[in-house]
Amino acid sequence: MKLAAQVKLLPASADDADALAATLRACNRAATWVSEVAHAKGLKRRNELQEEVYHDTRAAFGLAAQPTVRVIKKVVDAYATLRGNIMAGNCGPPGCSRRARAESKPVVFREDAAQPYDDRILTWNLDARTVSVWTVAGRLKGIPFACSERAMKLLSHRKGESDLMMRDGMFFLVATVDIPEPGPYEPGGWLGVDLGIVNIATTSDGEVMSGRRVDRYRRRHRDLRRKLQAKRTKSAKRVWKRIRRRESRCTAQRNHIIAKKLVTTAERTSRGIGLEDLSGIRQRVTARRDQRSALHSWAFAQLGAFVEYKARRAGVPVVFVDPRNTSRQCSECRHTHPANRVSQARFACRSCGIVLHADHNGSRNIAHRADAAWQRGAVNRPRTSRR
Is 129 left (phi over 0), alpha (psi -120 to 50) or beta? Predict the structure, then answer.
């Protein structure tokens, strides 16, 4: 399975940092120009586009041969992604103004956007923890990098491209790694997981993982954003720029912790994991005005993706099931009625009289459906997206 390992580059001097920044600017300016040519002439295939723009790109932007090839490939990949989004409906239905804009304008690249490197222009020395990287100022050798021990273990399986990126004046390399994936075992049962906003995850064992801490943190950041936006000063903008990614990092950390706990529990008990397929829920659900922020900041897709890849690494089978009526159906007698869900936290069956925590009841229904889907062999992975 393919994963990503991120390391932080530590340039020895300001000149090295300037060379890396200038390289990103040159590559992305070249990519924007190539994109304009590709859009104007309808050249979306790599060989045709490379034949048209290769020599002019090298001459105009001072790029070497292999970086020029990587720039052209980046443009081709960007248009392939755009076409995929349009076909999937992510740019709106036919006739939608957003879709029309996506189709009518060329792709534009930010000057600090990530640039892919291959082994011809980027060399790793894992023993010394250094890299040798091509720049517009020449090849920089022996640039040290820092990373976690987990990332170092992953880098031993590095295969394919690495992306050079700049964030808040710091430089990072994101390497693609390909690690062996064990086949899923035959589960002896299922751990159902109900996802929610108030409680991020509730298992069929009755364990509730609350989202209270994340919600408090998110509200505090929302209030801070309002205050900083009201000031309209340069210092306020600097503060907001410095803290703008803290909320997403906090949410990702919480989702990583929950996903690891779920996978560990399932692996220890030789069970599979049953999750809800919540793709498209934001389009299906109409939220009140005061609940829209919570709904649209709910990182359910990220949690599902984390659980899925951690489970694949451990060989734990994962099944995504239809979430319809899981909160209204009794997990004991299967009686389904809207009145069964008495409140957000309480479930009381009108048929058999059982009383449960509402999310616990939903997770038990998910476990039943996961078992039925596994028995039928109808195990489909949904389209989950990373944040």
Answer: left
Q: For residue range 298-336, what is the model confidence (pLDDT) as tens digits?
A: 677 888 899 999 999 999 999 999 888 888 899 889 899
Residue 14 near residue 96 (C-beta atoms within 8 A): no
> How far is residue 61's CA from residue 22's CA, in Å, rounded to a whole number?
11
What does the alpha-carbon distance between residue 190 and residue 266 come to, in Å, rounded to a whole number?
8
pLDDT-derived band of residue 30, with 50, 70 and 90 as boundaries?
very high
Encoded tokens for 158: 């590095």
Distances (CA, A) of 45 to 78, 120, 181, 191, 192: 12, 23, 33, 46, 45
The dihedral formed by the CA atoms of 121, 122, 123 and 124, expressed in degrees to the nearest 10: -170
